[in-house]
Specification:
It catalyses: a hydroperoxide + L-cysteinyl-[protein] = S-hydroxy-L-cysteinyl-[protein] + an alcohol. InterPro entries: AhpD-like, Sestrin. Belongs to the sestrin family. GO terms for molecular function: L-leucine binding; oxidoreductase activity, acting on peroxide as acceptor. By secondary structure, the chain is mainly α. Among the domains are: 52 residues, no CATH class; 122 residues, AhpD-like, CATH 1.20.1290. It has 15 helices and no strands. Helix 1 packs parallel to helix 3, helix 4 packs across helix 9 and helix 12 runs antiparallel to helix 13. The two termini are 34 Å apart. The relative contact order is 0.12.
Length: 287
């Protein structure tokens, strides 16, 4: 979908407003600029969450955004909101890691972890623990805003990854007011990102998998008595093993310490809750 003729004026106005209100036009806004109506809604949401009246101070809102983005190891959003956090008067000491933040914010870690990876495990006890009266307790209004911020930035991290946006692009001129052209190579998913080591590794994996499929088909002809079910079982096993073994270049890459310092229990991740033949954990349902 390409912006209709005449939409450039609306887009330019949106980007100017973003520049005036935030002092910058980040790469997320540049990508969303291809869909001006969506960008308009997004900016209204961002403004309400981060800059309008609410129970949470501005610096704590940005710190919660950092916590959420770090849970998905999204260096772009962590870097962006680290700058915002300092601009609104946040304590630089908090940026040394989650252990340096006030206990009230650290108490969000557990529910942040579950919301990011296994939200169906959240129970009313998690909410009650945060609302329990005490020096570091949350008010209901504060907690609602905090949870909205967490889920918003979990989702935004997926958008950032899906568009290939990285902190490097911000340094290379992501603050300009010219939206990326859908016909040029200036979009975030540039040739460099597609042809980098990750793209080559993926292609190698596919080639290896195809070779294994070919060998299995040949073995079916050579072996007597092999059934279609046995062949499919072998293929699934080969496919699973090839996907589980990460290429060496990818395996050696680890998240930056500037992101991991905001994460506790980094090994905790998504686990399928619909596995067959196992006791499934209770699913969090809302009518």
């Amino acid at each position: 979908q390409i912006p209709q003729q005449g939409a450039e004026g609306n887009l330019r106005q949106l980007l100017v407003e973003a520049l005036v209100s935030a002092g910058r036009v980040d790469s997320v806004s540049m990508v969303m600029g291809l869909h001006p109506q969506y960008l308009s809604s997004f900016w209204k949401t961002q403004r309400l969450l981060l800059r309008m009246d609410g129970p949470l101070p501005y610096h704590k809102r940005h710190y919660i955004a950092i916590m959420a983005a770090a849970r998905h190891q999204c260096t772009y959003l962590v870097s962006l909101h680290t700058e915002e956090f300092l601009q609104v008067g946040g304590n630089p000491a908090w940026l040394q890691g989650l252990h340096c933040a006030p206990p009230k914010l650290r108490n969000l870690n557990e529910i942040n972890k579950l919301l990011a990876h296994r939200p169906w495990l959240i129970t009313k006890e998690h909410i009650e623990a945060l609302l329990k009266p005490g020096e570091d307790s949350w008010s209901l209004a504060e907690l609602v805003q905090a949870l909205v911020l967490l889920t918003h930035y979990h989702s935004l991290a997926s958008f950032v990854f899906g568009c290939g946006i990285s902190p490097k692009e911000e340094q290379d001129g992501g603050q300009g007011c010219q939206p990326p052209s859908p016909h040029s190579n200036s979009s975030p998913a540039s040739d460099d990102s597609m042809e980098g080591s990750g793209g080559r590794d993926a292609m190698r994996e596919v080639e290896v998998l195809m070779e294994r499929m070919k060998l299995l088909q040949e073995s079916q002809l050579e072996e007597e008595g092999i059934t279609q079910e046995e062949l499919e079982t072998r293929f699934e096993l080969e496919k699973t093993e090839s996907l589980l073994v990460a290429p060496s270049e990818v395996a050696e890459r680890c998240p930056r310490s500037s992101v991991l310092c905001f994460v506790e229990d980094p090994e905790f991740g998504y686990k399928d809750f619909t596995r067959r033949g196992e006791q499934a954990p209770p699913t969090f349902r809302a009518q």
